[in-house]
Every structure is written in structure tokens, then in C-alpha cells.
Amino acid sequence: MAEGIDERGPGLEDLSDVLLDVILGYECNVCCDYCSVTDEMRRHNMTTREAVAEIAQARALGVHRVSFGGGEPTIRKDLLPLVRFARDRGYDHVKVASNGLMYSYERFAREAVEAGVTQFNLSVMAHTPALYESIMGLPGALDLVRRGVENLLALGQRPILDLIIKNDTVAHLADIVTYWAGVGARDFVLWLVSLTDRNRDNLASLPRIREMRDDIVRAFETARSLGVFCESRHIPRCMLPGYEDFVRDLRQDRVIVVTPGSRFRLWESAISANTYTDKCRECKYYQGVCMGARNDYLERYGDEEIEPIR
Predict the structure, then answer these.
(1) How many domains does the structure of the chain reveal?
(2) What is the pLDDT of residues 97-151, one digit of tens each?
(3) CA torsion 188→26→104→234, rounded to 10°?
(4) CB-hemisphere CA count at 13 Å for 40?
(5) Considering 52, 83, 213, 255, which has the largest number of Cβ atoms within 10 A of its Cβ?
(6) Nearby residues of 204 by Cβ (< 8 Å), 6 or more positions away
(7) Does some domain include residue 308?
(8) What residue numbers bound the domain in which 106 lies?
């Protein structure tokens, strides 16, 4: 652990604002059609002892923010004990990233709150039963996740909903925001589907940004009209001209990821926008808040759409 998170380097001398993202494992209770986790990866899971060691050592280095992800962390029996352990150790921010299904059980949702989870991130797929089922592969999934969101809201929580931008969701982004805002959600984060690992050859899932821009902008404008928060995490500002304020770069959140087999800084990973092209050098955001584009996108489409912002 110390070998991974204590690779301080430039800009990481002070770890007090770092988020430790503990990927407990890759097992999941569903298999979404865009998931990048392979069957081989699903066999790799962190033990409770290993997770405890990572959390304790990071805290000793001054980290006080932790996230639990996967896979699906809520199916692990040790999740809530790990949450309580983190809070007892002095972590004041504890995030859980989930598909939301387990929160449909009111008792589990309440126990998660009581254990000390302070931020609930739920991946929501769609706004209709048919589209939700086609993506997640689980009949009745929309009703279950909606019940989970409602349970968290009733417990006084403010869940953050993560929306995946891909070929069959992009045209519905505004409607998805509208639907979930009607349920009571106030925060939405847009993530571009990744062509990595299991999803690497699913090229049709990732259209060009210029083909999706109007639908993405419509989602931003819908959120603005509804008075809810919405931002994009994977698309360079130059591809969303006029909506730069809706973009947040992954480097702005200093996240160090610990998995069953690796440790890395999130902004250096294959799923992060972290590659500059020659065009980027002319942009006012170069070497600033923008890290460039994702490698998988550049491999698919090149840098034709990159237009430096001066």
C-alpha cells in the first residue's frame, strides 16, 4: 500500500485531499452490456484483511476520504463492516459506487447510512423498463433501482446518479435526467462508455462526440431548466464548445485507485482522458484543467474533432 499511495511525486506531497478508491473486487450481481470487466477479472477479489490494511495505511498517510467500488461492492458481506472500520479510523468521507439494486431493500439502505456512508453513487442506465433491461439484463431493474433511490432519499441522502453515454442512451439523456429528477435526484454525472477489456470490440457502443453533441447539450440544458446539477467527466472541453463549465476533468479529483492486483492514479489509467495531441498545444486549457482525450477514443476516431480553444 505505502508503495502505491505514497508515490508522492509532484503535486502529491499533501495527501489530505486524495480519495482512496478501493476496488474490492469485480464480482457483480448483473452483467451490463457495456461492462469492461472480463470473466477473468471477476475471479479477482480483495480479501477483507487486505482491504483493512489498505484503509489503515492510507489513513496513516493523512488520507481521510475513501470510496468502495467494484464490481458491485454492495453484494459483499464485509462492505458495511469496512465502512464502519473506515469511520472509526477517522475517515469523514465514505463513498460507495453501486448499481443501486441492493438499496431497493429498505433495511440495507438504512444500515448503509447508519454504518457511515456519506456519499452514494448509483449507476442508472435509462428511464424506461425496456431500455433498462436491455442494458442491465435484469427484468424489473428500473423499478428496483428507483425503489433504491427513493429509499435513500427518504433516509435524507442525496444520491449522485452516474449516466453512461453510449449509442443507445445518448438520444435519451435529457429524458433520463428528467425522469430521475422527477424521482427526486439532484445530481447527475455523465460518463462516456469505454472501449476497454470486455467492451473493447463493441465499437458501435461509442459514436463520435460530434454525432452525440446535440443530445449531450440537451441533457445539460434540461438539467439547468430543472435546477439540478449535471456535469461531464470524459469529454474534452473543446468537443463541447460553449459548455466548458459543464466539464470536470478527472485530474481535478485526486483519486488513487487500489484494486486486487494493482495501484494507480485514476488520471493515469486507461479509462481516463489523459492524452494530448499536437493540436492541444494551441489550447488555453493545455497543461491546465484539461488532460486531453481518452486513448480509446483517439484510437477509434483520431483527433479530427479536437479544436483548440483560444
Answers:
(1) 1
(2) 999 999 999 999 999 999 999 999 999 999 999 999 999 999 999 999 999 999 9
(3) 10
(4) 3
(5) 83
(6) 167
(7) no
(8) 2-301
